[in-house]
C-alpha cells in the first residue's frame, strides 16, 4: 500500500510542480472563445455542450470540456498545487501544535499541566468539525489561509491525545530513567529521548490530517465556501452542482472526485505503511 500511495502522491506532486508539462492548456484557455477562428466552435457545436469527449473536437482536450469551454484535464492538473498546499500546510500546522502538547501532557501526566491541556482538548472536541469551519470561514472571509487555519485548529486534537498516550508509556522505559538519573533536564528528556520515538506516530497523523484537510477543503468548496480566486477540485465539483449538470455531464464530476479520493487514499496508505515499518507486529 505504501508503494501505491507513494506513486500516486509523486504523480500529483509532479502535476503541482510542473503543470504546464502535463496539461495541454493553461486554466484560462477556452475552446470556443478566442480570436483565432480555428479554435472556435460553430454556434451549433457550442449549443451541444455538455457532450462527452470525442476525437472530433477541435484541439487535443483529454476528458473533454466543461460548460464554459475550459479543458477538464487541464483544470484537474493545475488544481493539484492547491490541494497539496492545503493538505501539507494544515497537516504540518496540526502536528506542530498537537505533538508538542501531547509530549508535555504525557510527560507531566496526572499533574495540573496535564489536566489543563486535556480540559482544553475536551472543550475543543465539543465543537463539530465542519460547522466550526463554516462559521470561521464565514466570519473571517473565504481564503486559503483561513481554511488552513480552521482545519489546523480542529485537527490537532487526535495528535495530542495519542502522542500523550505514547509518551506516558515511553517515560517509564529504562533509558528515560537512566537519563533522569544522569541529570538530564526535562526538556532534554522530552525532545532528545522521547520525541524521536514518537515521530513515526506523528507522521502517521500528519498524513491523516493532510488527507482530512483536502477532503474538508473540497467539502467547503462544494458548499460554496471555497476560495473561488483559486482553482481547486472542490470548486470544479461545486461548478457542476451549481450549473445543474450532475446527472447530465458526469464526466465533469467524476475526474475531480477521483482526484480527491485518490490523493486522500495515498496519504492514508503512506501513513499506515510508515506505522507498520516503525512498529512491526510479530
Automatic annotation (TrEMBL):
| Record keywords | Cell membrane, Membrane, Transmembrane, Transmembrane helix, Transport
**Domain of life according to the entry:** Archaea
State the organism named in the record. Haladaptatus paucihalophilus DX253
Family recorded in the similarity comment: Belongs to the binding-protein-dependent transport system permease family.
- Localization annotation: Cell membrane
This chain belongs to the protein called Binding-protein-dependent transport systems inner membrane component
One Pfam family from the UniProt entry?
BPD_transp_1
Q: Does the keyword Cytoplasm apply?
A: no
Q: Name one GO cellular component term.
A: plasma membrane
Membrane-topology annotation of the record: Multi-pass membrane protein
User: Which ranges carry the ABC transmembrane type-1 domain?
Assistant: 80-271
| A biological-process GO annotation | transmembrane transport
Residues that span the membrane, as ranges: 83-108, 120-139, 198-223, 249-270
